[in-house]
Amino acid sequence: MKHRIKRLDFNVAYACNLSCKGCISLSDFDRRGVESLKDIKEQCATWSKILDPSVISIFGGEPLMHPRIKQVLEIIRESWPNAMIRLITNGYLLRKYDPEMWFTFGSLEMQVSIHRQDHEKLITDEIKKIVAQRKGWKAHRNIVEGHKQLELTNDKLTIYKSKFKTFVMPYRLENGELKPFNSDPKKAHSICGSPNTPILYRNKLYKCAPLPNILELDKGKHYKYKGTDANGDVATLVANIDKPESVCAMCPESQDHSVDHFKKENVHVKNID
Q: 78-112 burial, b for 16+ CB within 10 Å, e for fewer?
């Protein structure tokens, strides 16, 4: 049985060129490496028979740190030919790629998140290089889930320049250890930044993006959740995608634990700062 879902995050990189306080991928810890092409192919072959997402978000870490990101996108496009592919990036590494490349993957969305107010022009200039490759763009400014967004649309590519500003920390840090908040799951879920987006991470499916990242660093000390493999109870996970569950108690139930990612002191850009 193939499960139809709205969106799937697909983790392809653990390393990031940023170190952001409170990052849901824990970029402020020593995260390294990327998924091999072999593993990505195997995951796509397996999960494309199980999940039918409308949107697949290419997630990290920073996906543009993957040295073969072009092949990664091609493999995912071949596996899910009807899905919208959305590349999630902080934009700093766009300078390393030929702007023409982004028009070659069929229907592609690029979400560029602005993390530092003082670096916005730097990222905007990279976006302009891509836009300059084609004519006929349509521009639209709006507010999406509380954050400002500029949407640039062409027939082969849509670029979202997103300004999230604040992120809710998904963990407590106590004596150098990650610990859950033990919140009311319903309240925590109500302020969640991605309450309806499971993630495919090392060939297992998890309810949300912070979970596998935290579990990998915690090593079973304070968190007991287990990911679902292809032979597991995928149907139950899918049925509860947008619902609060006991695991949601790990996150805070108040915006008081939000971190401002426009502030320089909360976001370190490697090789720039």
A: ebbeebbbbbbbbbbbbeeeebeebeebeebbbbb
Number of other CB atoms surrounding residue 34 within 10 Å: 22
What Rg value do the Cα atoms of the chain yield, rounded?
18
Which uninterrupted H or E stretch holds 239? helix 234-239
Find the largest Cα–Cα distance for the chain.
Answer: 54
* 134-139 long-range contacts, CB within 8 A, separation 24+: 134/103
3-state helix, strand, coil in the chain (%, to 5): 30, 30, 40
Q: How far apart are CA 105 and CA 230, in angstroms?
A: 27
What is the domain partition of the chain in residue ranges? 3-174+196-243+261-269
Domain 3-174+196-243+261-269 has CATH 3.20.20: yes
The whole-model pTM stands at 0.94
Query: If you ran DSSP here, which 8-state letter would residue 8 be given?
Result: E
pLDDT tens for the chain, 273 residues long, are: 799 999 999 999 999 999 988 888 988 888 899 999 999 999 999 999 999 999 999 999 999 999 999 999 999 999 999 999 999 999 999 999 999 999 999 889 999 999 888 999 999 999 999 999 999 999 999 887 667 789 999 999 999 999 877 888 999 989 989 999 999 999 999 999 889 999 999 999 999 999 999 999 999 899 999 999 999 999 999 999 999 999 999 999 998 888 888 888 989 998 775
